[in-house]
Amino acid sequence: MPLGTLDRTPPPLFKQGPSLLSKFVFFTCLSLFLMFADTRFEMAKTLRSSIATVLAPVNRVLSMPGTWVSHAAAYFESQTTLKNSEAALKQKLLLQTQQASQAQVLVAENAQLRSLLKLKATITTPSQAAQVMYTISDPYARKVVIDKGSTSNIALGSPVIDADGVIGQVVRVYPLYSEVALLTDNDQATPVLNVRTGIRSVMFGHPTAHSDVLELRFVSGTADIQAGDELITSGMDGVYPAGLAVAKIDKVERRTDSAFAKITCQAKANLGNVKHVMVLQPMTGNIPDTVHEAGKSGDGKKGAKK
Hints:
Elements: H1 20-41, H2 45-101, H3 103-122, E1 127-135, E2 143-146, E3 159-161, E4 166-173, E5 178-182, E6 189-194, E7 200-207, E8 212-217, E9 230-233, E10 245-253, E11 262-267, E12 276-280, H4 289-305
Antiparallel strand pairs: 1-2, 1-12, 2-5, 3-4, 3-12, 4-5, 6-7, 6-9, 7-8, 8-11, 9-10, 10-11
């Protein structure tokens, strides 16, 4: 058979339509045309309204599960909120109960602070208020820690008092707090003066595991001293200002086997439950610089004369 008589057209199964590029260009142009026409002439407004009306029931039905889930979540959230509110109210009630129980303590502290302020007005020595943080646990030492240290210009050896009398003396100074040895501490010795007789002596602390005792030692058994005498600081040590209340003589025992009387005292200050105190500057720190300079210049002149 001659080649010219053959059918060169592909069979229907392999017939090819427009190319993909042609389809992409056509539909792109059609989309741009429709968007322009809709923006310019609002051609699809009626069509969109009709479709939205037809699909409204379908949208409502399809949104119902989401609505139910939202309502359930809101229900459980409200239950959680109510439980949290109840817990918060109970906690607030407990806090108010605690505050009510502490009201009496605050009233007592307020009275003590007022007493300290009145005392500060009568003291010429520089001073500053401090609060007792805690008591050092030691059965044979009596020390407390206050909330002022070297950053607050607390000096080593500073006298510490409350509204009733002397508490003790600063024995260790840290940047943010200090240790105060109470009068009843075993290492404390306080020069005192008997207000009634003017006799000077030294009072020592003598703590034991069960009691706190203050003693006047090395006082002659024939000295004019008796129970009820008031003791104040004598100022002879250069640390405590003179005239601060220290203790009251509780008992005097005159023994025939000793030249000295056994004298026990009761501290005027509340050493066991002190909360707020006043820290005084040591008397040695109150000496004017001019006195030291004058002393130095005097020594220099004496040396020059020599």
